[in-house]
Design goal:
The protein is 0% helix and 52% strand. By secondary structure, the protein is mostly beta strands. The mean pLDDT is 93.
């Protein structure tokens, strides 16, 4: 089992920045992949960014490319999401998730999920 705990959400004005953290504990798989997803009220959960643990390879959704940066500190079992130039449409609950199968944007592949952290961007 892997436990994931997100932190760092909050309220910010448009154009501002926030940094989210995802701490993993429990059994960790060598080479597992961690991603961030988000879900706004009334909308489906959508992929945001993903990073492979052993290579650091990243992939971003087009809507956040150039504004968000995903990174990881393997020694701390933590994945980060730095969010800059935030827009009101970035408002959502942000979840981190992990899987041992590889890089994918499909939420159904991810085995473990955190509880989510709210990000609200005011206009």
């Amino acid at each position: 089992q892997v436990q994931l705990v997100e932190s760092g959400g909050g309220l910010v004005q448009a154009g501002g920045s926030l940094s989210l953290s995802c701490l993993a504990s429990g059994r960790t798989f060598r080479g597992y992949t961690t991603a961030w997803f988000r879900q706004a009220p009334g909308k489906e959960r959508e992929f945001v960014a993903v990073i492979r643990r052993n290579t650091g390879t990243t992939l971003y959704a087009d809507s956040v490319k150039g504004r968000f940066t995903i990174s990881r500190d393997n020694a701390k079992n933590t994945v980060y999401l730095q969010m800059n130039s935030l827009k009101p449409e970035d408002t959502a609950v942000y979840y981190c998730a992990s899987n041992s199968q590889g890089m994918t944007t499909a939420a159904s592949v991810y085995d473990y999920w955190g509880q989510g952290t709210q990000v609200t961007v005011s206009s």
